[in-house]
Amino acid sequence: MKPYDMGLLLDECADRGVPTVVHLDRPFDIAPDAGTTHDLPALARLVRTAAGWLAAAGAGRGDRVAIVKDNHWDYDLLACAAVRVGAVPAKLSGHLAPESLAVLLGRLSPTVLVTTAEVLATADSAGVDLTDACRTTVTVDRAHPRAVHVGEFRHAVPPRPVRPRADEPLVIMHTSGTTGLPKLVVHSTRTIIGALARMEASRLPVAGVRRSDTVTNASSYAHGRTFCWTASVLSLAPAEVVVLTDTDPDRADPVLRAHPPTVIEALPAAYARLQPLTTRLDNAFRAVRLFASTYDAVHPPTVRSYLAASARRRPLWMQGWGQSETGPITFRFLGRKSAAWRNAGRAIPLRTRLRVIDPATLDPVPRGRPGVVQVRTPARCLGYVGEAERFAGKCADGWWNTGDVGVLTRTGSVYLLDREVDTVPGMSCLAVEDVVEDRLGAVTECVVLGRTGAPPLPVVVTADGTLDHAAWSAAVADLPRLAEPVVLARDDVPRTGTGKVRRSALLAALTGNAAPAGSGRWT
């Protein structure tokens, strides 16, 4: 099936008799009494029901429907319901600060906001009214004085489905927000479904999903990646889909053991959090043939732990590099003996072109020299909501400026060095982080923060909050000069909804100065 109409995706799967069964680690927020196991006809009914709610709340063709709630895959079911009534869903992470949510909602001016009373109460306690920019606010958990509880719409009849036009806005998602307030990224059916999901819905020889697979996802479902994944994975009809919303190892382990994955896609932060499970007897990853990571790089020790945990003869790790604005740009496969970890792989064939430019002159540089990476892809988004000038500043003659510094090799591979905003002359912060984590087993995470006028500041996370300074000194002796390390607990590191470190916020918290080492011109 070609995944074109997201409003009818579940209906079409159900009509075709797709036998996929979905297992959840907790019930949907929009269907708390429906349990944790669903077939596709049940999910199709849920989308139709939600479409009725949205229509009764006033959403129709061209309107925006904002979704802000706890992390769960029903973000994408609500998005499909919004598309079904002709509206444009905007998925906003409930992990965002109330002040940030208020700004983004102000830019969106949604006709309907679907949220929870808990989210509204948290914002109220911070002195922020999230309902102010919205015509109607609907809560899915309990009543709130400035909202309509979804129970009021229990008898609503879903309207006839509206088919989206290929080049009109289909969905809005936001970037991770590692350097500040996230951008609101607008995609069309042609960009996110036609150029991305349709490609992923092919039964590729190595990376393709098989009908016998159990596909597990542990993600931030407020972000655009899972909207695309929903289209492709359901079109491929695996035997089972497992949705993880909680990556606490002790809570995730029973779910994974009950439904051992053969293919798993997860956030880098989720892989890091679940890593202790790889060393347990008869671990839940023994049947995995393909691990996939998106959003950010995964450090080598973590990759090796998962590949070693698989009992398959040749398990593979598929590493993707991309952005919310473009979808995947490059990919590569890692095996148990792979090296050159900062190699992000080659551009996706027949779809993506890459070049590297000098950040000062903006002229292309020869292969082998570092510069800012640009990409040309049919999957590039339509724009930013409320920030047209910012979007235009990252476009040049069809090329998109990723804001990442890297090297394009003679063979076409890309070696990523840093975000331009984090660039430190003469070194790669990301490479140093890899080396530290590789050499010091006690360090579960290393973040190197570039600063102006001072050596880069390494921040390390350890299980017990301590660091052997003699071991540290030995590990970094041959690396570029670094400041004395700061040791923090994992929960003390500010993060985005996808688990990325908010480097500028961390730098400000530790030094009182968030000035980046780079220019930040393309953030």
Automatic annotation (TrEMBL):
Q: Which InterPro entries match?
A: AMP-binding_CS, AMP-dep_synth/lig_dom, ANL_N_sf, ATP-dep_AMP-bd_enzyme
**Pfam assignment, any one:** AMP-binding
Residue stretches making up the AMP-dependent synthetase/ligase domain: 42-384
What is the name attached to this protein's record? Answer: Long-chain acyl-CoA synthetase
- Read off the CDD domains from this record: AFD_class_I
Q: Which PROSITE patterns match?
A: AMP_BINDING
Q: Where are the transmembrane segments?
A: none
